[in-house]
Amino acid sequence: MQYSSLNTAMAPRTPGKAAAGTVDVVTGKAKVEYFLDPTLVLESDSNDSALTPATRTPSKRKVDENDDSALFTSKHLFMPCSIVKEIEVDEDEKVEGEVPVLVKTSDGQLHKIRDKNQLTQLVAPDDYTGIPDVLHLPNVTDASLLHALRVRYKRDEIYTSAGPILMSVNPYKSITLPGGEDIYSDSRMLLYRNSSKGIAGMETPSKNSATDDKALPCHLFQVADRALN
Known about the structure:
This protein is α+β, with helices and mostly antiparallel strands. It is 18% helix and 13% strand.
């Protein structure tokens, strides 16, 4: 068992199934969502002041595929977004094969994307539920992995498995269970003694076992138990 920080490489983008289960409240139809890649957001000029800076009319630029600074500065990193409409750009700014679009993230912000074909689609239900073992995601990418951590973090589930590796996100607060019990209490520790086979994400690799309600949540106690046994 390892207890490690996360450092993954981007996997190839793979088309996913439609995001069944998410419904547009206006149309009532199934909503297709994508992970927002900040490196695809077009640069802005002084026009379209009604939009956020990242959504104004794109300026001509040469894209540096090795420049990933946007990944570390954007608060919208891999946030779910939906396509609002395709947009027009000046003839001298067009790139053959690219389809610029206007997208809206889940917090309501608008962004102009240089090519919708490079967006990775969310797959329902796994990309929406925050499963305990990210290796059971249908498409394991930087986007799906980070979003799974984001979903779980919002539920105060700070531990997530990646096979035998346990990932932890600092909550900067004390975490208690619904009944008020501390997640590091002695009684919780005893639950994990010799129980690694019943821990979410550590059973025989199968989607059903990874989401089994009876499985214990991923925990640091799991690492300690396996290390001592």
